[in-house]
């Protein structure tokens, strides 16, 4: 029985080691593979199908995102440890300062007690001198009284004119002796009081000296503990900086993988994406910007039916074109002309057949000039062009679906939609139409309330589909 138990335990240990080793090897292989994707130039999908490449890039993105989460946790943990240590150091500093004050106050008290003890000792010396003088006077008086007692009656009568004078002198000496005795008793009592005061002061001084010793010991211990905590604090700061560096590197790798994924998206510039393709693009944009995929989709649904309606003017030769006769200069404000020319020339497009939005009522142009699925006006597109190119690694194109999705996400992020707080999202949607997150009178006239209400309603519908797993086979 014992033999079977031992074999079973060894078998479990072997399985555990194998699983851990397997996970380690898998992580190492994935890290190497992902690093290869990061280092490769040009087509990263060489030798494999788009689906296989997409799958592996997604694995790499998930790998780096998990690493980022790990390092974020470590940064948060070390920051908390640093905060705790800083609080402990602060408490110890306060304690040391209090001990220094206690030591200083106690030393002052000791100094004052030394002065009092010195004064008391001087008083005792003076009192002792007075006692000695009183004793000498007493001895002299006693001697005089004794001499008077020894005189015979004949001597007294011969020396004094009156006998009463003798008795008066004797009585005076005895009264003086009695008074001197009383004074001597008072002086002795004073000396006793002074000696008691000296003892009390000495005891009090001794208490303060003991307190100073205790304070010094506490101070030394607190200083040692403070030094240890400061050393740990410096070490924690170093760990935080290291984790911050790892976090930054991992986030940069994740961003590069997202760029590769964007470059892999093959939705045609003229064709609108399917809902599944649109969701995948919006999901990646959420990873880049922090703006909810559902909000991006809800907005683009209102702007261009997610790429189905990118403009009905300046579109000669296109099957969907409703107003091929209305050119770009008729629908755009003249302050957009130079920006539009710059964009189409850089992309090598025909300026007279590149579609732009327009609103025609009664045969008259009401407004227009926005470009592509995200409906950016030319000058606004140029503001975001550099940001987009930094992410996708090539020239940005407002009519390219993936670039338009990214542009919309970046714009919403700039107005706080990355917080994913509804009030902030509503403000960002308002700004997408009106250029400001506040509902101004001009924005109201442009249909601001209707616009943002419809965007949020569409976003809620997309969020429901996402939660139901419509796009991931659940």
How would the blueprint of this fold be written?
Layout: H1 2-39, H2 50-150, H3 153-159, H4 163-264, H5 275-289, H6 293-304, H7 328-331, H8 337-347, E1 358-361, E2 364-368, H9 378-392, H10 401-414, H11 422-434, H12 441-445, H13 448-467
Antiparallel strand pairs: 1-2
Broad CATH class of the largest domain: Mainly Alpha
Q: How would you spell out the order of helices and strands?
A: HHHHHHHHEEHHHHH
- Structural class of the secondary structure composition? mainly alpha
Strand order of the largest sheet: 1-2
For the termini, the CA-CA separation is 48 Å
The biggest sheet, with number of strands, parallel, antiparallel or mixed sense and barrel status, is: 2 strands, antiparallel
Helix content: over 70%
Q: List how many beta strands DSSP finds.
A: 2
Oligomer: single chain
- Which stretches are poorly predicted, pLDDT < 50 over at least 5 residues? 7-26
Write down the CATH topology of the largest domain.
Helix Hairpins
For the record, the count of structural domains works out to 2
Mean pLDDT: 82
Helix count?
13
Anisotropy-based shape: rod-shaped
- Percent of sequence in beta strands: under 5%
Fourth CATH level, the homologous superfamily of the largest domain: Methyl-accepting chemotaxis protein
CATH architecture of the largest domain: Orthogonal Bundle
Cα-based radius of gyration, to the nearest Å = 50 Å
